[in-house]
Amino acid sequence: MTRLLRFIPLLLLALPLIEIALFILVGRAIGVLPTLGLVILAVVVGGFVLRQQGLGVLNRMRTNMQTGTLPGQTLFDGMLLALAAVLLIIPGFLGDFVAILLLLPPVRAWLYKTLTRNITVVETTTSYRSASPADPTPPHINGPGTIDLDDDDWQRK
């Protein structure tokens, strides 16, 4: 693992160079204006994906929470979709290629399965317990520090 960490600075240096080389190659193949059009199209698609998929992930997380299931894969999908949208917004063809891969559900499922293969999720819950199971009212509501006001006794400023 530490050997791989040594290559991160080289990778960070190589990525912009690869992107520049791809811009030159695509510009030679299809021309400057179509290349710029592809870059602008990728930015627009990235913004759209970020908006649409983000709302979809929020809805799936809400559904998971209502059904009581852990939203692990939903959160992971949301993170990858956000990363894909950011990669689409940042100009570059290599980033766009990776983003398109991340938009495919089978690729996200494979990544989730691969990364969580050796992870055990322990589910914990916390809940409020009242003093008496028959009385569902929390004890602090009827406690000595509670002042019960009628509607006529208070006003909004």
Protein described:
The longest helix is centred in the N-terminal third of the chain and has 36 residues, at 32-67. It is built from six helices and no strands. The model has no long low-confidence stretch (mean pLDDT 80). 66% of the residues lie in helices and 0% in strands. It starts with a helix and ends in a 42-residue tail after the last helix. With 157 residues, it is mainly alpha-helical. Helix 2 (8-30) packs across helix 3, helix 3 packs antiparallel against helix 4 and helix 4 crosses helix 6.
Keywords:
mainly alpha; 157 residues; 0% strand
Oligomer: single chain
The SS-based structural class is mainly alpha
Instruction: Tally the beta strands.
Output: 0
Number of helices: 6
Q: Compute the CA-based radius of gyration.
A: 26 Å
Secondary-structure element pattern, one letter each: HHHHHH
Strand content: under 5%
Biggest beta sheet attributes? none
The overall pLDDT, averaged over residues, is 80
> In angstroms, what separates the terminal alpha carbons?
61 Å
Specify the helix fraction band: 55-70%
Poorly predicted runs = none
What is the global morphology?
elongated
